[in-house]
Every structure is written in C-alpha cells, then in structure tokens.
Amino acid sequence: xxxxxxxxxxxxxxxxxxxxxxxxxxxxxxxxxxxxxxxxxxxxxxxxxxxxxxxxxxxxxxxxxxxxxxxxxxxxxxxxxxxxxxxxxxxxxxxxxxxxxxxxxxxxxxxxxxxxxxxxxxxxxxxxxxxxxxxxxxxxxxxxxxxxxxxxxxxxxxxxxxxxxxxxxxxxxxxxxxxxxxxxxxxxxxxxxx
Amino acid sequence: xxxxxxxxxxxxxxxxxxxxxxxxxxxxxxxxxxxxxxxxxxxxxxxxxxxxxxxxxxxxxxxxxxxxxxxxxxxxxxxxxxxxxxxxxxxxxxxxxxxxx
Lengths: 194, 101
Description:
The complex is a heterodimer. Chain A is mainly α. Chain A is built from seven helices and no strands. Chain A has helices spanning 2-23, 27-47, 51-76, 89-114, 129-137, 141-161, 167-193. Chain B has a domain at 28-91: Helix Hairpins, CATH 1.10.287.3510. In chain B, α1 (5-25) packs antiparallel against α2 (29-53) and α2 (29-53) packs antiparallel against α3. Chain B is elongated. Chains A and B meet through α1, α2, α3, α4 and α5 of A and α1, α2 and α3 of B.
C-alpha cells in the first residue's frame, strides 16, 4: 500500500515538473524543473528496488549533466525565448504527435492491465549492486568496453568542438554575423517602407 | 500491494510524450536538449520497471548504458551549442538553417 501511495506521489511530481519544464521560457527554470523530474524518478527507482540505479541517477543526471547544462546557460547569458513568429505549423505537428503518443500510452496501459499480472518476488536480488557488477564484468563485458570507448570519443569531441578561435578569426565571424543581421533588418525596413 | 507494471509504463509514456512535444515546441537548443534528456529518462523508467517485474538484471544494466550515452551526448551536444553560439550569437534553432561557414 505504501509503495502505491509513494508511486502516485512521485509520479505526479515528475509529471508536474516535466510540464513546467516545457512550459517555462527561461532555460534556467526549465533546468531546475528537470532536476525535479530526475529526483522524482530516482525516488521511484528506490521503490522499484533498484538502489544502484537511483544513486547513479542522482550522481550522473542531477549531478553531472544538469550542472553542465546550468554552466552553459550561465556562460551564454541568454535572454528569454522570443515568441514564435515562424514555423507556426509546428504547433499543429507537435499537438498531433503528442496526441498519437498519448493514445499509444493508454493503449499500452490497457493492454498490459489486461495481461495476466506478474507477481513480484520480494526477495529478488536483481537490483543489488553486487548482481549488477557481476553481470557487468562477465556477461556484458563487451558493451561496457564499448561505452568506455564512446566516452573517450565524447571527451575528444567536446574538446575539439569548443576550442577557441584566434582573436582575428573570431572578430571576422562576429562582424559577418552582425552584417548579415543588419542586411536582414534593412530588407525588413524596406518592406515596411513599401 | 505494489503498483502494477502498467502504471509504471503509463508514467513512462506520459513523460516521453511531454518530452517529444517539448522538442517540437521549444525553439531554444538548450530546451530541446533538456527535452531529449527527459525522453531518455522515460525509457530508463521502463527498463527498471521491466527489470523489477521479470526479476532480471539486464534492464538495469542497460539503464547504466543509456546514462553513459546521455553523458556523452551532454558533452558533445553542449559543445555544439557553444560552438553554434559563437558563430551566430544565439541558440535559436531557426538561426541554424544556413549551412555555410
């Protein structure tokens, strides 16, 4: 009974935070809402008898990834999203996609509810850190190695992507962009004058 | 009494839907990035729920893999966003429509 109550509590919190993340225009508010989703999901993992995943969720997602995102938000000093002026039809596309996915979700819910109920073995060891470690370094050794190579690639890629341009080059790029914007502005002014 | 498997799948589906709709509605590259993270988390929840109800460790192992891929994605994706910001002085995805320079 207690786990059902906890599930609905954290599920509601997760959904509310997710909606607030999509709703807010300010990226910083979105990021903080997303941290709320991560923490709620981590609590749900604990009720699912997966303490290792819950800890890793907090460490990697709420700790590492979101700190990186918040750093980038602070670094770029963004202003708020401007209202949509182009691509208005995307609202319709997004709404349609959301509707399809929701119908699919309820179909899955219905289908799984009708299927014979699985009984949970309370004494199972599947979520224990020991069993995860054993599986990781015996049966799934190759995927773990591949993930290691992937992380190395990400490190190298990240360093190469954010390398600094020479000051001269940078000035060139910025001037070109400002010129382009001025041109567009002039074109718009011209159109208004017409 | 534990909540049934179906309720976990429903929560995961709802979170995935919110993420997918958010990717389309957001114009901000960082917002899209966070919506993708939300979708990855929704899938993780499915993995853990199945792992619990079938008493199998494999699901939780794959959650670990998904998290590693998400970390790699964060490093590279945020690098791309910063590089884009340096070139265009904005992170509005509509400004990324020109494939020059």
